[in-house]
Hints:
The protein has 265 residues and is an alpha+beta fold. Helix content is 28%, strand content 33%.
Amino acid sequence: MSNTESKQEKWQNIKSYIQYFGRHIVIFIIATVLLLWIATKFLDFYTMHGSTIVVPNFVGLSINNEKLQDLADDNHLAYIIADSIYDATKTKGMVLAQDPLPGTKVKKYRKVYITVIANMPERVKMPNLVDLTLRQAIAMLETYGLKVGKLSYIPDIAENSVLKQNLNGKALNPETMVDKGSKIDLVLGKGLGNQTVSIPNLIGKSREDAIKAINSASLNVGVETFDDDEDTINVKVYKQTPNKTQGYIKVGNAIDIWYKSNKDE
């Protein structure tokens, strides 16, 4: 075999290898693209890409009413009771809040977590507050889901320390089961003199923060007036009596508060 024929044969072999691998590379690329396309379509189908619905408003409906379930079914949603709160002023079983909020765009079959009004209040064990400072007692009550009621002061060397804890005018022993959210009245020592405290500035505070500031100052909440009777939650203080400029008042005295809604702010 001549050198020319040998070179031609080698070149033919190289071309064959190139064609062979080239075909497989093209097949591999086509297969990869096809698999990616199928995977994308499957994910779109599985996640319902582009298929969203607007979450309806469940607030105000009752879990005891078929309308709530019908509304969830009609919108291809499921609801789960995530929390319950006792409120004697509201209808038992009524939806108080939801997540996601009404108007939110979600995928079908999304779970909506709702908070409802409990049929019965949750009960907790009353902690022992005696000998704690007022600040410590307030923190302890908050930990147990209880609230500060009326503060009364009597002459005692243990100034601003809890001497007694009462509920509805009666002594309340530690470990007694009480309704969560109950207001616990405290009797505290005011020292052996005529004690006064600085009047806190409540203007601009939320109701919750205003009450905390009053109690922390060894004072009581007086008359509460709401400009918007329908909203007692989303409010801020715009007036108080006595006010900060009046300086000092005796421990145990009350501060009257006026609120207005802050929804539009």
